């Protein structure tokens, strides 16, 4: 018991519990904002990517490939240092806003590609039937294609959400407050790496466990993953 | 017109190339070690031995459920605190161990999925010819599984190459770190330097990425969730 107390002091962790709870809360809301934004932009990007006009799909493809082939850390630095140069130092560009913009720009292509594979998985007859009953292109997309596309890719989207939540940890490097930062705060104030980092890891695993449970429920509700995008 | 930028790039490029070389070395070493670890664990997991499957499963959950950054911090800061001399890693060892275990968890999942994707008739046929379980695995199942695993494996290699950027926080002088050092020399051209860094990463990753896309279209193969 003494050995355990010497490597993991529960009392200190208890003192910092509010900080960690605050951090978990921050991680969750940052992830949620990025998730919503990247889903919306992802639908838009999937539309551009599948467009038949080279003027639209080429830039979209270039953006997707650039994001997929460079590390998130470098992208975060580019956005964090680049935004003030482009927009001047306006007051709203706090670290959290820069971080959310960077993460959204990073996640959008992944979401877009998943949504694209979902749209392509919807049978062509569905689209033709919708057109035949008199819907226009936007109505067909909104009422017929997208709902089925989403149902097909929800498990994959949840997997990407788990990646997104893990990626928020890198925002601690540009001084955004989230779980990782609360661990680093314990580390810098008490210099207790075990308590700081093991607790942080446990927080992430808790979030992961919740997400895993949610995705199990969702997969069962959807009939055990009828479709797995290839 | 861009005289100044050209001069800055000329003076930092040797260091960035050096960093890129370090990135290439670290990533290839991690991929090599991680693939061996993953191949062994993935094969073990496909046997469905209760205790071992559970142990490997918890390894997978822990390493896929937490960000690589925290894993690196644990190996770098926590392990030396445990009072076991063997685990007192320096930054290089900590990075290698963390990256290898991180690679290993992806590869384990892929190898396991690939072995399960080989039709069970193949193994049964091999067994009925008189091969032992091990022989069937080695001569019949694994060669086919290997082919199924190629597209997913090259996808993992892209992830690992990109993850090496995180090693800069414990002071491994790879590409991102060299970029940060160059910024100390030319603080006014942050964007230019990070732009060049991103470009170098792109040059390294893009061929692998294209190969992944091509192999996926060409061979299909197994897929794991991207987390």
What is the topological layout?
The complex is a heterodimer of chains A (230) and B (227).
Chain A: H1 2-7, H2 10-15, H3 17-50, H4 54-69, H5 72-87, H6 95-121, H7 124-132, H8 137-167, H9 179-190, H10 193-221
Chain B: H1 3-46, H2 50-65, H3 68-78, H4 91-117, H5 120-128, H6 133-163, H7 175-185, H8 190-219
Helix pairs in contact in B: 1-2, 1-4, 1-7, 1-8, 2-4, 3-4, 4-6, 5-6, 6-8, 7-8
Oligomer: heterodimer
Query: What is the number of beta strands of chain A?
Result: 0
In terms of structural class, how would the helical and strand content of chain A be classed? Answer: mainly alpha
Q: Please report the number of helical segments of chain B.
A: 8
Task: Report mean pLDDT of chain A, rounded to a whole number.
Answer: 89
Shape of chain B: flat
Rg of chain B, Å, rounded: 21 Å
Q: Unreliable runs of chain A, pLDDT <50, ≥5 residues?
A: none
The helix-and-strand class of chain B reads: mainly alpha
Question: Sheet bearing the most strands of chain B, described?
Answer: none
Count of DSSP E strands of chain B?
0
Percent of residues in helices of chain B = over 70%
**pLDDT < 50 stretches of chain B:** none
Q: Give the N-to-C terminal Cα separation of chain A.
A: 51 Å
Strand residues, percent of chain A: under 5%
What is the CA–CA distance across the termini of chain B?
A: 45 Å
Overall body shape of chain A: globular
Summarize the main sheet of chain A.
Answer: none
What is the N-to-C succession of helices and strands of chain B?
HHHHHHHH
């Amino acid at each position: 018991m003494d050995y355990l107390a010497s490597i993991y002091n529960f009392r200190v962790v208890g003192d910092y519990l509010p900080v960690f709870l605050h951090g978990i809360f921050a991680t969750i809301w940052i992830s949620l904002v990025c998730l919503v934004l990247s889903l919306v932009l992802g639908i838009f990007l999937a539309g551009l990517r599948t467009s038949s006009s080279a003027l639209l799909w080429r830039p979209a493809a270039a953006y997707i490939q650039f994001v997929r082939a460079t590390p998130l850390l470098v992208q975060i630095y580019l956005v964090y240092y680049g935004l003030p140069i482009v927009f001047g130092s306006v007051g709203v560009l706090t670290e959290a806003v820069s971080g959310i913009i960077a993460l959204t720009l990073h996640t959008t292509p992944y979401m877009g590609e998943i949504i694209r594979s979902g749209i392509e998985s919807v049978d062509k007859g569905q689209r033709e039937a919708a057109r035949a009953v008199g819907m226009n292109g936007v109505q067909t997309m909104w009422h017929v294609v997208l709902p089925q596309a989403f149902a097909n890719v929800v498990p994959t989207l949840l997997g990407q959400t788990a990646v997104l939540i893990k990626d928020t940890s890198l925002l601690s490097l540009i001084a955004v407050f989230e779980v990782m930062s609360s661990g680093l705060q314990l580390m810098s104030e008490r210099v207790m790496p075990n308590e700081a980092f093991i607790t942080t890891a446990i927080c992430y695993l808790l979030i992961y466990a919740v997400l895993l449970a949610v995705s199990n429920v969702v997969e069962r509700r959807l009939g055990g993953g009828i479709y797995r995008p290839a | 017109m861009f005289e100044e930028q050209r001069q800055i790039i000329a003076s930092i490029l040797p260091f960035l190339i050096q960093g890129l070389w370090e990135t290439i070395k670290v990533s290839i070493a991690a991929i090599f070690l991680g693939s061996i670890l993953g191949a062994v664990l993935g094969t073990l997991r496909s046997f469905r031995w209760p205790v071992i499957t559970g142990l490997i499963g918890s390894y997978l959950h822990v390493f896929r459920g937490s960000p690589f950054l925290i894993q690196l911090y644990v190996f770098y800061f926590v392990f030396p605190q445990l009072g076991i001399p063997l685990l007192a890693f320096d930054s290089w060892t900590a990075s290698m161990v963390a990256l290898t275990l991180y690679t290993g968890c992806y590869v384990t999942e892929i190898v396991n999925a690939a072995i399960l994707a080989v039709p069970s008739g193949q193994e049964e046929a091999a067994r009925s010819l008189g091969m032992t379980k091990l022989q069937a695995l080695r001569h019949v199942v694994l060669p086919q599984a290997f082919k199924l695993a190629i597209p997913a494996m090259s996808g993992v290699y892209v992830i690992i190459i990109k993850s090496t950027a995180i090693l800069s926080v414990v002071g491994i002088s790879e590409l991102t770190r060299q970029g940060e050092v160059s910024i100390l020399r030319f603080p006014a051209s942050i964007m230019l330097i990070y732009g060049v860094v991103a470009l170098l990463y792109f040059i390294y990753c893009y061929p692998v990425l294209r190969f992944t896309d091509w192999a996926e279209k060409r061979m299909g193969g197994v897929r794991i969730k991207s987390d």
